[in-house]
Amino acid sequence: MISDKESTENGGFSFWSDSKVIVTGGAGFLGSYVVEKLKQRGTGKIIVPRKENYDLTDVQAIQRLFRDVDIDDRGTIVLHLAALVGGIEANRARPADYFYENLIMGVQLMHEAWKFGVDKFVAIGSICAYPKRSEEHTSELSHMSESRMPSSA
């Protein structure tokens, strides 16, 4: 792994400075952190598609995104963090909707990325799982020894 010291000795991360990175979910909780780190590393171009402009469950919107980004030999990377989210209760109320939208989003995006010649595709996922008797505002550490409820994933 390259340390921060090594990365700045020659004017920054050349890998990142030469890259075009599409961060789906880049305005979300985890994605905004990833975007900030990419900026710190001097990424050449960061694209954060918004749902209002690119519904990632619609293959034509994904194709339009890749055309708009102009995939070229610059080294295009997709970091896929977008997801339909809503917490445990929302997932329990509509599990099929959450499963379908998140699955179709990832599968179509990955397939279109391959068809458009994207260099690298990284899909990142997470789940939320809390004990059966969890208060709304609680510390993560307080749950370390309790039984878990079924996850929302």
Mean pLDDT: 81
How far apart are the first and last residues' alpha carbons, in Å? Answer: 31 Å
Tally the helices: what do you get? 6
Shape: globular
Order of helices and strands: HHEHEHEHHE
Give helix % range. Answer: 40-55%
How many strands, what sense, and barrel or not for the largest sheet? 4 strands, parallel
Structural Rg: 18 Å
Number of strands: 4
Strand order of the largest sheet: 2-1-3-4
User: What is the structural class?
Assistant: alpha/beta
Beta-strand share of residues: 5-15%
Low-confidence stretches: 1-11
Detailed description of the structure:
- Helices cover 41% and strands 11% of the residues.
- The chain contains six helices and four strands.
- Helix 3 links the parallel strand 1 (20-24) and strand 2 (45-47).
- The longest helix is centred in the last third of the chain and has 22 residues, at 95-116.
Give a quick summary of the entry:
By secondary structure, this protein is α/β, with parallel strands linked by helices. The protein has six helices and four strands. It has helices at residues 4-9, 14-17, 29-40, 59-69, 87-93, 95-116, and strands at 20-24, 45-47, 76-80, 120-123.
Fold blueprint:
Blueprint: H1 4-9, H2 14-17, E1 20-24, H3 29-40, E2 45-47, H4 59-69, E3 76-80, H5 87-93, H6 95-116, E4 120-123
Parallel strand pairs: 1-2, 1-3, 3-4
Helix pairs in contact: 4-6, 5-6
